[in-house]
Structure formats: C-alpha cells, structure tokens
TrEMBL record:
ARM repeat positions: 81-118
Family to which this protein belongs: Belongs to the beta-catenin family.
Pfam family, one: Arm
InterPro entries noted in UniProt: ARM-like (IPR011989), ARM-type_fold (IPR016024), Armadillo (IPR000225), Plakophilin/d_Catenin (IPR028435)
UniProt xrefs under SMART domains: ARM
Protein name in the entry: CTND1 protein
Organism of derivation: Indicator maculatus (spotted honeyguide)
Biological processes per GO annotation: cell-cell adhesion
GO CC entries: adherens junction; cytoplasm; nucleus; plasma membrane
Keywords: Cell adhesion, Cell junction, Repeat
Gene this protein is translated from: Ctnnd1
Gene3D superfamilies (UniProt xref): Leucine-rich Repeat Variant
Location of the protein in the cell: Cell junction
Length: 241
C-alpha cells in the first residue's frame, strides 16, 4: 500500500513505516526513518540559518499531503522529539527560518496528536511573530511569512479547543483583530487573519469569555474593505516549499 492516500487516524499515537522487502534506493532514500533522525539532528545542532531553513523546509515537504510516508514522518517527528526543535525555530532571528518552521508545523499539525502538542507549546511563539501588540522591538515580517504563520495557527486551532484558548491567552485575538481592521495590511493577511478569527468564534465555549473581555461578533468577521489592494491578493498558498 506504499503511496496510497489514507485519512489521518485521530486515535493513532504511532504510525510505523511500511516494511521493506528490498533496500531503499534512488528517491526512496529521501523519506526513510533514518533521514528523519538526520533532519532532527541538524535542527537541534546546527547554528547556520541556511541549514535550519533547509531542514525545516524538507520536513515541510515530506509531511505535505496524505500519502503514506507523510503520515509516517509526522508520527516519527513526534516520537523522535522533533516538534519542540521546530517550534524553537519560531524565535530565530532569520525570517526565512521562521517561515520554514511555520510551514513545517502546519503540515505536522495534520496529525491529531501533533496538533495537540503544537497547540500547547508553539502557539505563543507563533503569536509573537504576528504584527502589532506591545512587543519591543516589533517584528517586521513579510506578507508571505505573516500569511504562513496565520495559516499555521488556523490549522492548529481547528478541532482543537485548547489551542484556541491558548491563542486567546497569548494576546492572539488582539493581534488578529488589528490585522483585520487596521487598514494597513494586505488582502491576503486580512483574509488569513479573518479565517482564524472565524475559527475562534466557531467555538461556542469561547464566546461568553470573549464578550466579557469586550469583543463583539463583528470583531470576528472579515473586513476586506480596509485591506490594501496593492499588497497582493493572491489567495494561493503552497503546502510545500
């Protein structure tokens, strides 16, 4: 069944790589268990931004889609304690490293158990990379990176109430509403932020706490009239590099 597309199994905590009857060769060498360990080692040990970006990008690509080895690699990354190494890269000084880490986490979060762990441990760092808020100095990331981070946040909080709560606790709502309504962000950023806000509002358990904090339903609705039409507008988003 190698290469056969299978749905994620919510209850599965570990996914074994398919048994091989012959040694891996050619492109098959790119997605074997030992390669996953090499990438994790590079992420933990390397100080070179280009290597960190490339390693996270390779993981992003390998985890894209619902193919058999993608499922196996998402599980292997968790078992080999690689999730925290990738989440740590969200604090890196290099924007390219941050974007690659964000893309990798988005694809890793397709795995339900990964989604839970990323929600617990990576949401604060994801939020810190968003524009706005009281942070000093403020980050000035490109549109592509901001959209990548927003898409990752949405992937993590979908069907994950605890992650949505974490987003609310870490100044995430303030930043998302600011992107949605400030009038100086691109259409792509506004659309991505609005999608996250709509996902949050979809949790009925969060509505009363949010309203007590002063938020209204209108704060969670898309507001494209204020988006700068000159800063993009292309809704296409790659799941791989």
């Amino acid at each position: 069944s190698e290469g056969k597309k299978l749905p994620e199994e919510p209850g599965a905590d570990a996914v074994d790589f398919p048994k091989r009857t012959t040694p891996a060769k050619g492109y098959e060498l790119l997605f074997q268990p030992e390669v996953v360990r090499i990438y994790i080692s590079l992420l933990k040990e390397s100080k070179t931004p280009a290597i960190l970006e490339a390693s996270a990008g390779a993981i992003q690509n390998l985890c894209a889609g619902s193919w058999t080895y993608g499922r196996c690699i998402r599980s292997a990354l968790r078992q080999e304690k690689g999730l925290s190494a990738i989440a740590d890269l969200l604090s890196h000084d290099s924007e390219r490293v941050v974007k690659a880490a964000s893309g990798a986490l988005r694809n890793l979060a397709v795995d339900t158990r990964n989604k839970e762990l990323i929600g617990k441990h990576a949401i604060p760092n994801l939020v810190k990379n968003l524009p706005g808020g009281q942070q000093t100095p403020a980050k000035n990331l490109s549109e592509d990176t901001v959209v990548s981070i927003l898409n990752t946040i949405n992937e993590v909080i979908v069907d994950n109430l605890e992650a949505a709560k974490k987003l609310r606790e870490t100044q995430g709502i303030e930043k998302l509403v600011l992107i949605n309504k400030s009038g100086n962000r691109s259409e792509r950023e506004v659309r991505a932020a609005a999608l996250v806000l709509q996902t949050v509002w979809g949790y009925k358990e969060l509505r009363k706490p949010l309203e007590k904090e002063g938020w209204k339903k209108s704060d969670f609705q898309v507001n494209l009239s204020n988006a700068s039409r000159t800063q993009g507008g292309n809704s296409f988003d790659d799941s791989t590099l």
